Amino acid sequence: MHIKEEQVERHVLAVLVDNEAGILARIAGMFTARGYNIESLTVADISADHAISRITIATNGPPHVIEQIIAQLDRLVPVHSVRDLTEAGPHVQRELALVKVAGKGENRIEAMRLADVYRARVVDATTESFVFEITGAPDKIQTFVGLMREVGLVEVGRTGVVAIGRGPDSA
Amino acid sequence: MAEKSGAEILVQTLLDLGVDTVFGYPGGAVLPIYDALYDHPKIKHILVRHEQAATHAAEGYARSTGKPGVVLVTSGPGATNAVTGITDALMDSIPMVVITGQVATNLIGSDAFQEADTVGITRHCTKHNYLVKQPSELAGVLTEAFHIATQGRPGPVVVDIPKNVQVAAAEFSSHNGLKNSRYQPQVDGDFKAINEAAEMIMQAEAPILYTGGGIINSGPKASETLGQLAELLGAPVTSTLMGLGAFPASSDQWLGMLGMHGTYEANMAMNRADLVVCLGARFDDRITGRLDAFSPNSKKIHVDIDRSSVNKTVRVDLPVIGDVGRVMEQLLAVLKGRKFNAPDYEEWWSRIKGWRATDCLAFPESKTEIMPQLAIRKLWEATHERDPIITTEVGQHQMWAAQHFDFEKPNKWLTSGGLGTMGYGLPAAIGAQLGDPDALVIDIAGEASIQMNIQELATASQYRLPVKIFIVNNEYMGMVRQWQELTYESRYSNSYSDSLPDFIKLAESYGWTGILIDDPADLEAGIAKMIETDGPVLVDCRVAKLANCFPMIPSGAAHTDMLLAPEDVKGTMDDNAKALV
Asked: Cβ contact (<8 Å) for A80 and B310?
């Protein structure tokens, strides 16, 4: 007997939740308990009174699983709304990364040149290192980090994806 | 406003919420609450002998009365012992509020004595849970906890209260109430969807109503509405294990339970129907059998209050989100408004008649041994006029009870369906008896299951509860043994109930009456004696040891591949079937 794998697709979900203790564990735990995947998860409070947080979850799974993920999220008591941005249409995805590169000579100049092409900003510099700040869609960051590996990457930190729908309507 | 201690606020809020019965067990982290209870005789505290039993007793109370069950246990082992019953309530959608003590807030996380991360442990086996850090939050949290436990799809809610929060004081005034709760499940069905459902019903030639525990949860009125809907449609009705009693078994339209141990006619009708109307059920794997062969030619309407139940395992054509009782009322109104006159479905009923002719619940007779099915049948004959409340443990006896005990009314059948928890029946019977002191309450048990919460014999004795236990004793964990016979060439690994106690002496030592039945000739007299005897009675009914529960859809098989009798058994299964539960 062999265990079958299904075709998966990537979806980005925007989830508005009560900003209360344990909410992140509740959501992350629901994903593990039901065997769903989390590619990235970001959370921060977004309301003036700090009562509501927005969680952006990038997940993947077959369409019927994505549908279940949304329904399961939606029935958690502290969850106010769940929006599938991938399904809803055009939206903007952004991620920020801090990328540290160390080295001298030609590598250092090349790192600087590439950073310029990718519109990464220098936020720290020594004579033998740079820290770049780069924002963009996840694949742009992925590519940039890949290039930096060849010119002396020593450390990278990424925020994970945040996303928002295009146009005047709110999630 | 006067200041009160957290414990006082808790007790006062319970009173305000109409709580009159609490199932619990004291311990260090709930001493302030127990001290507050000492002054409030209006709340009847039932002292169980194990925290798991407190949760099952609360489930039995809730399932039979329709009111939420309330549990009070201490921190650490008190809370972890309650986890099985909490999970059981989640799976079977039972309204329950569990109050757990916790170590003082300043000790949380320090591995203090009897500390456990109760909120973490119960996060995924509750509908919602809370850690209360201030006494001023208690009244609001408890009120919301009861709201969440009872509204929408019911379920268990845990409120974890650190000891210092029970002792500290806060301002409190009664009747704070719940204002604009954030939890507002949809009750009414979408009008367009109801109309579409009516349209599908009007076009059906072979419809079937597939009902579940949601109808029981919706309240007795939903069962009445189901009766009216079934009458208007003239269609056959079948039900899940959890839904038994919502539709009277004496009706001509009743096909019996469906699924793994359901009737041949119910499963065949589901398979051949052109319209399945699912009312408050969730297409559980015990019901569907092999998914790709489940009711392949039907359109499906699914009425459920929980959106996540829709399309979870079976794709449906029309979901209707809402309370099943309310949706059925709406549907009735629309059908009547359209002057719907059901056809007589003549061809459909004649096919059903053919399936019924297999007489799938027939069982072999024996002069020397008591057949377990016969024992249940006789129990039904002797008691059904008293509308007994039947609880069960889990296993063969449970399925025989579901097959051979006919229910006419809702809230009379209490069983652990989703989680399948052995040890459920006795504490559930205790809870049901407290909810209805005059009812005849019988736990139909197996000799293995009953030992999982046997200590509760003492609880029934202490509160003078005339609970009856009817043990169908075949000296095996019968369902495990049956699967080993069907799947593993009768290699009976660890399924024999060795070293059984003398149940009669055991019962007597707790102040119960014990009755042994081991001769078919004594069966009826033994049952009669059980009913006539005042107070709690345990019956040890020795039945045929190797009887199997048929009909049965083996794992991974379709509804049309039922095993009807021992001759159908091959004794082996392929790995794909073995991998399914």
From this structure: no
